[in-house]
Design a protein that fits this description.
The protein is α/β, with parallel strands linked by helices. It folds into two domains: 1-225, Rossmann fold (3-Layer(aba) Sandwich); 227-326, Magnesium chelatase subunit I, C-Terminal domain (Helicase, Ruva Protein, domain 3). It has 14 helices and eleven strands. The chain has a five-stranded parallel sheet with strand order 2-5-8-1-9. A two-stranded antiparallel ribbon has the order 3-4. The longest helix is centred in the first third of the chain and has 25 residues, at 4-28. The radius of gyration is 21 Å and the shape is globular.
Length: 326
């Protein structure tokens, strides 16, 4: 591991570049600073994110802007009920050549650095699962051959929470593959006014590249070597283990939770708090980072039982109590 004296200047230089990138995204995506930060945290952690919000809040625009600013090759797939796995992964075609007939592989949109899976819950489970191997292993199996996806590789998937007719909810195993579940809410009045004026005139803000794929990989490497204090590790452990139905520390949750987060939630928090610290120009994460990422890291990895739902208990309130306890 790199010593702290050599690590500090590299981290500070990267933090300055990330601040410039964050500002460039915020110039285009007005009033969603927290959402931008969470999306950057997911990418800097080397993971994937689920973007959930009603139509018209800029989810597609956010992903497109992130791709340009971070210098990542981006592809967008509009998920529909008739979308097939081959439409995402690619397929082989038979070509006539002077040497005879040969199969040639045509890569699908998954072979990119930033993939936007738009309205992922509109596709069938078979098509949804086509992304699972790529997200988990960085490769896909097509025609009996494992084909690696590019590095870096990130999936930002969107969901519409209000229109569920004709959708296929993501299974728990696939939800767990997303590092963060990012909820996008309506902007504040002042931000919405600024957005209205900025997007309906003759000139509109256009994003420009600030980083390149190699810079993203370098930032991800710095996240991995950032030191984490014992108190932060203990806080992550207490939060994740406390969010399980059988937790001895929170016996009242036994009658409220159907299931809780597994070890992958702790891994997500361990990487996420480091990425959040680097994004803020700090050399190590704090318990405040754990509390800030508790909701995005846990809410898609937990579920209320029927009894708790009928009583009007909210999952966010449970996570808030757990995060405030350490």
């Amino acid at each position: 591991m790199m010593n702290s004296e050599a690590l500090e200047p590299r981290m500070m230089a990267m933090a300055q570049r990330l601040a410039t990138a964050r500002s460039a995204v915020a110039d285009v995506i007005i009033g969603q600073g927290a959402v931008i930060d969470l999306a950057l945290v997911a990418i800097l952690s080397g993971g994937h994110a689920l973007l959930t919000g009603v139509p018209g809040l800029g989810k597609t625009r956010l992903v497109e802007t992130l791709g340009i600013v971070l210098g990542l090759r981006m592809r967008r797939v509009q998920f529909t009920p008739d979308l097939m796995p081959a439409d995402i992964l690619g397929s082989e075609v038979l070509d006539e050549t002077p040497q005879g007939r040969k199969f040639r592989f045509i890569p699908g949109p998954v072979f990119t650095e930033l993939l936007m899976a738009d309205e992922i819950n509109r596709a069938s489970p078979r098509t949804q699962s086509a992304l699972l191997q790529a997200m988990a292993e960085g490769a896909v199996a097509v025609a009996g051959e494992n084909r690696p996806v590019p590095v870096p590789f990130h999936v930002l998937a969107t969901q519409n929470p209000i229109e569920q007719e004709g959708t296929y909810p993501l299974p728990e195993a696939q939800l767990d593959r997303f590092l963060l579940d990012i909820r996008i809410d309506y902007p504040a009045a002042a931000d919405e006014r600024a957005m209205l004026l900025a997007t309906t005139g003759v000139k509109q803000a256009r994003p420009a590249a600030v980083l390149a794929a190699a810079d993203v990989i370098a930032a991800q490497a710095l996240v991995r070597v950032m030191p984490v204090g014992t108190k932060v590790v203990d806080g992550i452990m207490a939060l994740v283990r406390g969010a399980r139905p059988e937790s001895p520390a929170w016996p009242e949750l036994r009658g409220q939770l159907a299931w809780g987060p597994g070890p992958r939630a702790a891994q997500a928090l361990m990487l996420g708090v480091r990425a959040r610290a680097l994004l803020d120009g700090r050399l190590a994460p704090s318990l405040d980072d754990v509390a800030a990422l508790a909701g995005p890291a846990l809410r898609h990895r937990m579920a209320l039982n029927f009894s708790a739902q009928s009583e009007g208990i909210k999952l966010e309130d449970i996570i808030g109590r757990l995060a405030a306890a350490f």
